[in-house]
Amino acid sequence: MDQPKKERILRLIQILIGNRKNTKELSRIVECDQRTIQRYIDTIRSVGFVVEYRKRGVPFLSTKKGSLKEISDLVHFSKEEAVILHRAIDSIDDNTVLKQNLKQKLYSIYNFPWLADVIVKPEQGKNIERLTEAIGNEQYVTLENYRSANSNNISNRTVEPFQFTTNYEQIWCYDPTEQKCKLFKIARIGNVTVLEQPWLSKKKHIHSQIDIFRNAAPNFVGEVRLNLNVRAYNLLVEEYPLSESFIQKTDDKQYHLTAPVCCYDGPCRFIMGLFSEVKILGDDGLKKAINEKISMLKF
Question: How far apart are CA 217 and CA 234, in angstroms?
């Protein structure tokens, strides 16, 4: 087996984990014809992997033999993890072959956000796997024993799931009962049951924005502007790595953050924990939210 063929098969294995593309699309990505893709799939099957097909002839690696979890743990990176790895790779001395090889491998994986049934926490893995399956097949699910912080109730929710947020912490679903898109936290779901019923409201699925504080919403509500000292800067980028691309250094000890946000809860929590290290420059929505939080403090 020549080296290019090995690389194409390994690349195909990566893509087939959580795949949403048909063989024609796969052939363009792997750079070979459709018949070659099918031969590669036959080879992958011959060494013990289970390859199944979704609707519309979309092949994917199945979890039936327990092999997917171990592979996915190795190949999947969330966007936030990719940023951290990119930062670590950049710390290597310039112009080294090692650095370039690491970057190439990271980018080849990062270009496929659906690479795995990533296991954020072991007890949540099955729920994430079933939600991923339902999204791929465009099916309803029942979120069983969902613990709602808003209503303070535990109940079952039958919804159309369509998009995960960063690190698979939450999932966007269309709720037909309330006729709107809502976020559900993965950790609050007792169990997920995939239903045979297909989506009925796909056109109503509103894809969300996700801000640096990992909050999601259909649209950004404002843009926070903060001056940070060294300590606040360090803590912000350590806790929220995606924030780094929104920060500019103004001098040796000061940094300026300008970033859109989906809600003000995230920045408020950060600011109130470091109120002496941060100066709020805007926007008005953030100032109002901070004042409301302060007025609710109990002594």
Answer: 27
Q: Nearest 5°: phi and psi at 224?
A: -85, 145
Q: Is 170 left (phi over 0), alpha (psi -120 to 50) or beta?
A: beta
Asked if the bond preceding 42 is cis, omega within 30° of 0, the reply is no
β-pairing, 154-164 vs 170-175, is: antiparallel
Structure tokens at 264: 């003000």
CATH number of the domain at 122-207, please?
2.30.30.100
Does pTM top 0.70 for this prediction? no
Contacts of 104 (CB under 8 A, 6+ apart): none
Enumerate the β-bridge partners of residue 257: 226, 247
Architecture of domain 3-110: Orthogonal Bundle (1.10)
Sequence spans of domains, the chain: 3-110, 122-207, 216-295
CA 177 to CA 179: how far, in whole Å? Answer: 6
**56-104 pLDDT per residue, tens:** 788 888 765 455 545 555 455 566 666 666 666 666 655 555 555 666 5
216-295 topology per CATH: Alpha-Beta Plaits (3.30.70)
Is residue 268 within 8 Å of 228, Cβ to Cβ?
no
Cβ atoms 16, 61 nearer than 8 A: yes
3-class DSSP assignment, residue 291: helix
Q: Can you name the residues that pair with 223 across neighbouring β-strands?
A: 260
State the DSSP code for 93. P
CA gap 264, 216 in Å, rounded: 11
- 87-98 pLDDT per residue, tens: 666 666 555 555
pLDDT, tens digit, 9 for 90 and up, residues 128-142: 888 988 998 999 999
